Amino acid sequence: MSTDLKDRSRIWFVLPAMLVVLALLIYPVLSSIYFSFTSRHLLRAAYDLVGLRNFVFVLSSADFWDAFANSIKWTVGSVAGQLAVGLLAALALEKVPRFSGLYRILLIIPWAFPAIVIAFAWRWIFNDVYGFLPNLLTALGISEGNISFLANPAFVFATVVGINIWFGAPLFIINILAALKTVPRDQYEAALIDGASVGQRFRYITVPHIKRVVGLLLILRTIWVFNNFELLFLITGGGPAGLTTTLPIFAYRTGWGLRQLGAASAITVLLLAFLLAGAALAFRMINRWERSVAR
Amino acid sequence: MSRVTIRGARKSYGEVEIIHGVDIDIADGEFVVLVGPSGCGKSTLLRMIAGLESVTAGTIAIGERIVNDLPPMQRDIAMVFQSYALYPHMTVAENMGFALRLRRTDAKVIDQRVRAAAEILSLTPYLGRYPRELSGGQRQRVAMGRAIVRDPQVFLFDEPLSNLDAKLRVQMRAEIKELHQRLKTTIVFVTHDQVEAMTMADKIVVLHDGVVEQIGAPLELYDRPRNLFVATFIGSPGMNLIRARARADGTVEAGGVRLATAGGHAVAEGEPVVWGIRPEHLDLADAGGLPATVAVVEPTGSETQVLLRFGASDIVAVFRDRHDFRPGQGVHLRPRPEHAHLFDAASGLRL
Asked: Has domain B4-232 been given CATH number 3.20.20.140?
């Protein structure tokens, strides 16, 4: 009897959190899915169910596919760059036993700033009139006249990807560093005696020990970067000429610029479906690793 | 198979020297145990032989070759680690064949040698398993298998039995000894457990604070310890030591009791000495000898260990016969003089 009472009282403890999750997460997702099947306009109250018309409209639009391609470029470039920089820096920092507390704090600082601060700082650095970097390159004679990194179609994508690598690499560094610390020293020593070269020790000892952490990081970062809106939007606004318009920016433009909330919802639903499918595949791969790796 | 020659080996970390010039000769095919309390430098010395630690001064030779500056892989040694250091993401067979695979040995040859080693170690049914699916003893055997497959000049063992439970430890002790008798490869084995050292070694090296205290066959160390450290470290329970003063007649005197040694001594009368006797070399007597009081009785079944007090000294005696001792009871112990030891009180050296 008393356990019954306890069982029921538990619900009351969980309920507030459940309601918050429901209101903040489940409801917007469900409403987006619902609106994607309607002709909802941002400013008009009346709308109809239109079946798959929004999806047909979106999928047959060249702008959508441009934005999709930009998203892939943005995500693959950023995440691959973050992994490469993060892995190399972690392997290097692992050899530095001193000041580890200090550099870990320094590395995490970018994450403490709001996106708006970071975006404007970089816009300032890259500004083609006052910007520190274009002027430096000119002064050093590397470029003739100041390069307009964020307006020049030849540079803009590499520039924003570079900023995103700067922003995301520390997360890789810190997590990979932590994973490297768990690799038992004597396995490296055993491999040394077995005659493994530096590359072979990395491949046969280091990689198997850190690949789960790296895999999880890749999934999380891919989702975050793919969905990233504010950093890119605040730096370039999707321009110049739509060159940096990714799917979230495209959805925002469609919903709040063109006020086509139904079509915008369809874009976000497609985004969600794409990411869910990707994440499911990735998690299956990681689960396979888990089964084949110790512990 | 090869001999290992260590000459004047020193090891410093910055200002701190932890190995102070060690000379050891290890013959071809010999089973040598480095033993000492923790921090004595035995593991460091082993790692210097392996090439995992640099040699600050002196030389280490494997066979005829001085290996000071050779990387571990070129020293032709195999090492078994305390934690086994198995590669967790490789199967038993892959673990054992890893070194050969790195040398691009033919897959057939690897398979053959892995199977042969697995046969020796009764690991054949486990070749497809991962280390996490094995018991401690099996992992230990895989670690040895990894060493055997390479057919090295020297096997190095770094406290390989410390992570096993007591019963398994005794079993693996015998297995390693049997393996050595079969393969006849030179073995250098590090342990802090003097029982392991006594039971397995052809030759024991007792290390203490980075200095070799004594090198010799197990029973030689037991019967004729060179100094007080070896006397107390080798043997369990350790040797009973009693502070005494030399007498002119070749005996010594402690607490009003005269204690004899087999050959007498030439120490000046009144000089301080330490007289020692092992627990099993004390017999019960009706009167005379060492008068002592029983403090604790520990029967093990095969023998009875008795802790006694003689003045301020603790004395342990071991009897194979069963006696009915009670705490507080007064007894007389008669030492066998032919087994008594005498050490200089100041230097601790055997007299």
From this structure: no
What is the CATH T-level fold of the domain B237-344, as seen in this structure?
A: OB fold (Dihydrolipoamide Acetyltransferase, E2P) (2.40.50)
From the list B71, B85, B89, the residue facing A294 with the nearest CB is B89
Q: Chain B contact for A193, CB < 8 A?
A: yes
Class of domain A61-292: mainly alpha
- B74-105 pLDDT tens trace: 999 999 999 899 999 899 999 999 999 998 88
B99 within 8 A of A195, measured Cβ to Cβ: yes
Q: What would the DSSP string read from start to end of B118-178?
A: HHHTT-GGGTTS-GGGS-HHHHHHHHHHHHHHT--SEEEEESTTTTS-HHHHHHHHHHHHH
Domain boundaries, chain B: 4-232, 237-344
Residue B246: CB partners within 8 Å, gap ≥ 6? Answer: B252, B265, B267, B268, B269, B270, B271, B272, B273
B88–A contact, CB cutoff 8 A: yes
Q: Which of A138-152, B141-155, B261-275 comes out lowest in average pLDDT?
A: A138-152
Closest residue by Cα to residue B68 from B2, B113, B7, B115? B7
ipTM for the assembly: 0.81
- Any B CB within 8 A of A141 CB: no
Reading the block at residue B336, the tokens are 């066998």
**pTM, entire model:** 0.79
- The residue extents of the domains of chain A are 61-292
Interface test with A, best of B95, B98, B129, B154 (most A CBs within 10 A): B98
In this predicted model, what pLDDT tens digit does every residue of A191-206 receive, in sequence order? 999 988 999 999 999 9
H/E run at residue A160: helix A156-181
